Amino acid sequence: LEDLLRSKPHTLSKAEEKLLAAAGEMAQAPDNIYGLLTDADMKFPDCTDGEGNKHPLSPGTYISYMESGDRALRKSAFENLYHTYGSFGNTVLASQVKQLQFFAQARKYGSAMEASLDVTNVPTSVYTNLIEAVHQNLDKMYRYVDLRKKLLGVDELHMYDLYCPLIEGVSGRTPIEE
Predict the structure, then answer these.
(1) CA–CA dist 119, 113 (Å, integer)
(2) Dihedral of alpha carbons 134, 101, 122, 34, sign
(3) 55 - beta bridge partners?
(4) Cα separation, 165 vs 66, whole angstroms
(5) CB within 8 A of 86, min separation 6: which ones?
(6) pLDDT at position 152, please?
(7) Under a CB-based contact definition with an 8 Å cutoff, are residues 160 and 64 in contact?
(8) Rounded to whole angstroms, how far apart are CA atoms 146 and 10?
(9) Given this model, what pLDDT does residue 171 score?
(10) Cβ count near 104 (within 10 Å)
(11) 92/82 Cα distance (integer angstroms)
(12) Taking a C-beta distance cutoff of 8 angstroms, is the pair 65, 77 a contact?
């Protein structure tokens, strides 16, 4: 009941709701395009490990490569995946932004962010306070980055260095029995 009352100002007339519902399939276009591109049309180049061996790259294999101790493999997987995504970036992003703006305006929200957060009943103040809390505690992240660089033995930390184990031989995975 609380959700119904909360959403009442954003619920339109029966005719308007019917019209928005009819646009539902069209509104899913950005998600559908992304899924089709990723699952069918995009071809990701193989990535190469530190010994020159090729590995097939896909969204399904990407995380296992990011968790590898082989920095060359991680770098190659990261660059190949994001370069491929980047070549299609505007295709999905522009339509997603327009879709979010349209539905936010149609339902009389102040912004697309407010409309998106309202789905899970998260006030925009919680979201912005979270960002502010992160900004106020960046010193802890910088300490962690320095520690990670030291443990990995690198001068510069990259995005592809964030998921690999810090200690050799420790996977961080615990079998369900344990």
Answers:
(1) 10
(2) negative
(3) 47
(4) 10
(5) none
(6) 92
(7) no
(8) 47
(9) 66
(10) 19
(11) 14
(12) yes
Amino acid present at 166: L
pLDDT at 172: 67
Cβ atoms 37, 84 nearer than 8 A: no
Kindly state the tokens that stand for 99. Answer: 């879709």
Calculate the alpha carbon distances from 157 to 63, 98, 144, 151 in Å: 18, 35, 11, 11
Radius of gyration of the chain (CA): 22
Helix axes 89-106, 29-36, angle to 10 degrees: 160
Q: Nearest-5° angle of CA 28, CA 32, CA 33?
A: 115
- Tally the residues of the chain: 178
Q: 10 Å Cβ neighbour count for 165?
A: 15
- The distance of Cα 34 from the centroid of its chain, to the nearest Å, equals 13
Largest CA distance in the chain: 64
- Kindly report, residue by residue over 48-77, the tens digit of the pLDDT: 999 999 999 999 999 999 999 999 999 999
